[in-house]
Hints:
The chain is built from ten helices and 13 strands. The radius of gyration is 18 Å and the shape is globular. The strands form three sheets. It has a six-stranded mixed sheet with strand order 5-6-7-10-12-11, with helices on one face. A five-stranded mixed sheet has the order 4-3-2-1-13, with no helix packed on it. A two-stranded antiparallel ribbon has the order 8-9. By secondary structure, it is α/β, with parallel strands linked by helices. This is Metallophosphoesterase.
Amino acid sequence: MRVHVVSDVHGNSTDLARAGDGADALICLGDLVLFLDYADHSRGIFPELFGVENADRIVALRTARRFADARELARSLWHGMDRDAAIEAAVRKQYAELFGVFPAPTYATYGNVDIPRLWPEFAREGTTVLDGERAEIGGLVFGFVGGGLPSPMHTPYEVSEEEYAAKVAALGDVDVLCSHIPPDVPELCYDTVARRFERGSAALLDAIRATRPRYALFGHVHQPLARRMRIGGTECVNVGHFASTGTPWVLEW
């Protein structure tokens, strides 16, 4: 059995169309939407609406951890516009393209920048969306936990610590624990390029220690200090920033 795993697709539909080649199934751990590409400020919803110069400005503020200033800049740019309608229209366009290239079968969960309420409109037959739910693939039990935790970025799908922990608990014992964000381990949460810690989940870490899945797979941190480590009997793997690599992580058994 061979499964390909991707995360942080961020608009890369070209490589996503090939991500399932040679695999029995594709797993996607979220963040399909590209709001702003930190490597190429001309790509994404933000520069399409406000131009590259403003994208440069907001990236500089966020990189300097001046989150309040970044939010103030964003508020000034959005003034007089229907923010929700503009974003939803752009996201719908991206989702139509991205869901359209998912192979069958695909098992997917949400990232913190995704909009879950839109997914039922675009998930075709053969794409199974799971959040706080399990699926059997090739005789192994996979558990899926979508979304992120509250952060200064205020991304669309952030839930409380309590809600996130309840989704983890609902999985019970699984062979492969799949989430968008990593367990709360400093080496797995630190982004070496952004030079900051991203939010990791203590509930995921507790579940790994208590239930000892074979693998814990996740994304979210684009350039992690450590891409993998063992916690007890569990191999923890950041499956990679698919938007830039275009290459899925491979799990075979």
